[in-house]
Design a protein that fits this description.
Blueprint (H helix, E strand, L loop, with lengths): L1 H11 L2 H24 L18 H22 L1 H8 L3 H34 L10 H28 L2 H19 L6 H5 L3 H9 L15 H25 L3
Helix pairs in contact: 1-5, 2-3, 2-5, 3-5, 3-6, 3-7, 5-6, 5-10, 6-7, 6-10, 9-10
Length: about 250
């Protein structure tokens, strides 16, 4: 518990996590409100429903990637990781504590993004299809909690591997916002590869854009894709911890 408490103090005593949390919520919720105020939607239109309120959640995830990466790379940058490893010689324990302390705020941000985006769209442009009537509807909104938490774990693993703030942030953002989309454009094999990419898996769990014909015949179901996303994040985190144990701080 003392290790967890120390990591909590380190995370919450700096300004960057607070600003990142605020931005991660304000971006998707604010832009969702703007879209809701301008959208011309008729009840019963195909493709409308709870999912339309979550289409901008990836913006919040992108900020969480930065927040989680900063939580570890800033320690390497300022040398505080050495003090941490001196106090807690078993490095895996310290890094797992940091993972837990970073993932929990990310999950809270996910809850705020999911329910906040849904609520603001409902308040501005309400129609019957926005009701949370089915398990799929709840998964699209409440599922953001799990997706944001796993996203933070993945970013922490990348940060442990790269250690440099600029490098880790660049890799995470370029991959999440650009590379996964471009891979789908590769002739013949692009779609097959894309079906196994981590953030594609996260979106499939949430059910985003499931009305697109190409996304109806996929190798895994929603919960299978969540398990796959979690497995990728756990593998990257394990690689990061192993790297931290073998390399000088």
């Amino acid at each position: 518990m003392s290790v967890l408490n120390a990591e909590r103090i380190k995370l919450l005593s700096t300004r960057s996590p607070w600003w990142c949390a605020l931005l991660a919520i304000a971006l998707p919720v604010g832009l969702t409100a703007l879209i809701a105020s301008q959208a011309q939607i008729q009840p019963g239109d195909a493709g409308n429903g709870v999912y339309i309120t979550q289409m901008l959640s990836s913006l919040g995830r992108a900020v969480v990637l930065v927040m989680a990466a900063l939580s570890i790379t800033s320690e390497y940058r300022f040398g505080t990781i050495r003090s941490t490893f001196q106090v807690v010689p078993h490095r895996a324990t310290a890094l797992l504590a940091k993972t837990a302390v970073t993932a929990i705020p990310a999950m809270l941000i996910g809850a705020a993004v999911g329910f906040g985006s849904w609520a603001v769209f409902q308040a501005i442009n309400s129609f019957p299809e926005l009701a949370l009537d089915t398990a799929q509807d709840w998964r699209a909104v409440a599922g953001q909690v799990l997706v944001f938490g796993i996203t933070a774990v993945l970013a922490l693993g990348v940060g442990m591997l790269i250690r440099q703030t600029a490098g880790a942030v660049a890799v995470l953002l370029v991959y999440a916002l650009l590379v996964e989309g471009l891979i789908g454009l590769i002739p013949k094999i692009g779609d097959d590869i894309q079906h196994w990419l981590p953030f594609f898996a996260a979106d499939r769990f949430l059910g985003l854009q499931d009305d697109i014909p190409q996304l109806r015949d996929l190798p895994l179901g929603p919960w299978g894709y969540l398990a796959y996303f979690a497995a990728v994040a756990a593998a990257v985190l394990a690689a990061g911890i192993l790297s931290a144990q073998r390399r000088d701080a």
